[in-house]
Request: fold
Amino acid sequence: MTVKAKKHLGQHFLNDKTVCTRMTSAIEGTGYEFESVLEVGPGMGALTEPLLQSKEFETHVIEIDTESVVYLKQHFPALGDRIYEKDFLHSDLTTFMGNKPFAVAGNFPYNISTQILFKVLDYKDQIPLVVGMFQKEVAVRIAEPPGSKKYGITSVLLQAYYDIEYLFTVPPDVFTPPPKVDSGIIILKRNQTKKLNCDEGLFKRVVKMAFNQRRKTLRNSLKAMINERNFPYQDYSEMFARRPESFSVDEFVTLTNLFENA
Reply:
């Protein structure tokens, strides 16, 4: 069984069942309450197969490629009407998943993998768990803690609502043809944050502006916002002398509130 993955390097087929079995095992026994798993971009079903074998949840799949949908219907009749020929990024997930909690899994297309996670954020109160394959560089960046040079915008925005762990690396030789990069599997587990203790729109703006010039201190990277709000950054000289990668999610919340209350 192989799976088609549409990536920026072309089409690659995963041919190692062990990888998909390990991904399925990561979903099982987590303690989170959900009855269904939505697989994004199943292709030819390498991950679908072990997901369907699990007794802990019901598997649903969403696939935009018509040929793959035909293949899935022929080879996985157990899916029944739980195959959705739709674009995950532009779908109202509640129209076919309802309002109950569900997990998300997939060997995600690398060119839209980050967009998939931001779509998950839109349903964060309904999606307690995500297990996915990404280009390794992206997977590492998402899971990195503060203080790392790879910690950035996606790290902060996702870690605000999910605890993220890098699980394992997938080498190129398990794909046909092999890509020129390693892949990485990460797991996202919903944390206890229901809502940030700040203006969430302003929070995103602060984080994005801070990292857009990540080599600069906040005094320089946030200069436009400082001037716009006439913010007395001198009163917080130690904080504004730091670079954005040193800030935790909670510290970005504090920073956001400083601007909001200026």
